Amino acid sequence: MKKFVSILLALTLTLCCLPAFAAEAPALTLAVASDLHYNLPEDTLTRFTDDPLYGHANRRAAMENESGFIIDAFLADCAKKNVDFVLLSGDLADNGRSIPEEHYAVRDKLLAFEKATGIEVFVIDGNHDLGSGAKTDIADFKEIYKDLGYDHARSARAEDCSYTADLGERYRLIALDSCDPTVSTEDGMSLAKTRWVLEEARAAYKDGRFPLLMMHHNLLDHMPLQRLFSHNFIVRNHFATAALFADAGIKVVFTGHEHCSDAAVYTSPAGNVIRDFATTSLTMYPLAYRLMRFTDEEIRYGEEFITSIDTAALAEAVDGYTPAILAAMEADLTAFSKQYLKKGVEYRLSLSLTMEKSGIAPGSPFYPLVDAAFSSLRSLLEMPLYGEGSAAALAASYNIEIPATPFATGWDLATELVSAHYAGSEHYDITSPEVTALLRLASLILKYVPDGVSDALFTGAAGAIVNALTLREAKALCRSVFGGVAPGEVFAAALVSGLVYGFANDADGLDDNNGAFEGYGKTDRASALSQKLTAFFNKILLLVKNFFAVIG
Question: CA distances (Å), 296 to each of 13, 169, 481, in order?
């Protein structure tokens, strides 16, 4: 009992010594962008399809030749809005690992902006920026960007690119290198890095400053089951890490990598809240960045868009831009970038529906079966969605009704929901015609594609499977298939429906692009003490409950 009282007293004394902040500081305004993916422009425009406006849309759906001009427009925007600081959360250069010249070009743009405006820029690396043994490694990155954050570093990790720096009178930036230098896209989080963030958060509070975290990888899920389907884009043990960061007093983290505009919120078991603001790629639809305004009482955020670029300079730098392409950009750059994204996603997915990408050799007994299935699937996605000879008419023959939507093809519909994910604040709910149409189109695919494959191809492939199995394996296969068909269908429908709905609808209560929430100074020392004591007692009660559950 004495030990328990001693622990409680120590906790109380510690919390009573929370830093006392001075009178409210001036507001802090940040421009936050991510994934600039700067590319050195081509000499001549490369085309991938025969589309007259979007034939140059690449498989990444990134506006590569335009990237430098988009960055220029972004910096000009920041100067007009007179922000206090600019934060860039990684992937500054698209081929930064292998083409250092891309980094030099980005650096020169940022330094020129600083010199012209007096507005400081703070960067951190992304997975495209450096690699061990690459032409740009950790030391190179820190040297290239030494005057863009590192020159203001209060502390830094020698092992990676992490550092801290003060922002204005009240805040401190913790710029965390979340990347694995040897494996592209993989997160490089470690116990040492986590401890460093916690130590720097405590040091910030001790110095009378509020900690803001910036890193490339996501801290929280920004798409359905991200840890399962897109695990390289989110830090490992993300809920445990988020709880530690939240309990250390970090309320806001800026991330990128997923190329989506999405805000996610997490409350730790101790009741502390942290919000992860993933910012979309600056050089992809919707060509957006964030404006964040901090006061002690409130944190307000909004989305800003790049609506024009210097098309004359673009046409002079890269040969092959037609007057029609340039006119479309000038008329509505946001709409152009959206169609560019959709065409790029379609091009990428259509490449996946080829035998060259399937990994199945031409001599394989499965080759004709998969080839026929791919052909049927491509045909279904490319045919008109409505009218004579359409997917809707075909669906009707299977007693499937495709609800009316404004989209022309299956590709048009599917890529619309992808573009909504990139833009954020997805508004499609489970009853939306768009979501219903996509799910019913998926059900049509499951019926139509097998019908387009001859019985001979199916039986030939089945024979190959049976011939490859022992009798015991064949029996186990039959039991697993015929004993689980109905539950499997239910599971597949639930999984697909849940993923599509979660991808197309944002229902976590935190708007992705525009909103406000309580500031760092909103919680006073008394309420913080009460909250921590409550959490402490809750943990004690949980331990007691678990103890009796084990022995009972």
Answer: 25, 12, 60
Handedness of CA 126, 132, 134, 139 (dihedral sign): positive
Q: For residue 153, which phi and psi values (nearest 5 degrees)?
A: -65, 130
Q: Per residue in 418-427, pLDDT tens?
A: 898 889 877 7
- The answer on 413 and 287 residing in a single domain is no
For residues 353 and 411, give the distance between their C-alpha atoms in angstroms, rounded to a whole number: 13
Task: Please state the pTM of the whole predicted model.
Answer: 0.82
Instruction: Determine the pLDDT at residue 547.
Output: 56
Q: What is the CATH number of the domain that holds 126?
A: 3.60.21.10
Q: What does residue 38 show for φ and ψ, rounded to 5 degrees?
A: -65, 135
Max CA separation in the chain (angstroms): 83
Pair 162, 115 in one domain: yes
- 149 and 182 fall within a common domain: yes
The two structure tokens encoding residue 77: 């925007």
Q: CA-to-CA distance for 362 and 368, rounded, in angstroms? A: 8
Pair 30, 74 in one domain: yes
**Could you tell me where the beta strands, DSSP code E, fall in 189-323?**
210-214, 252-255, 262-267, 273-278, 288-294, 298-305
Q: Is residue 475 part of a domain?
A: yes
Residue 509 counted as domain residue: no
**Which residue segment(s) compose the domain that 479 sits in?**
353-504
* 359 in the same domain as 280: no
| CA–CA gap between residue 78 and residue 69 (Å, rounded) | 14
Beta-carbon neighbour count of residue 119 at 10 Å?
17
Q: How confident is the model at residue 438 (pLDDT cuts 50, 70, 90)?
A: confident
Number of domains the chain contains: 2
Q: What percentage of the chain has pLDDT greater than the value 70?
A: 79
What are 446-483's pLDDT values in tens digits? 788 777 767 777 677 666 666 665 555 555 555 554 44
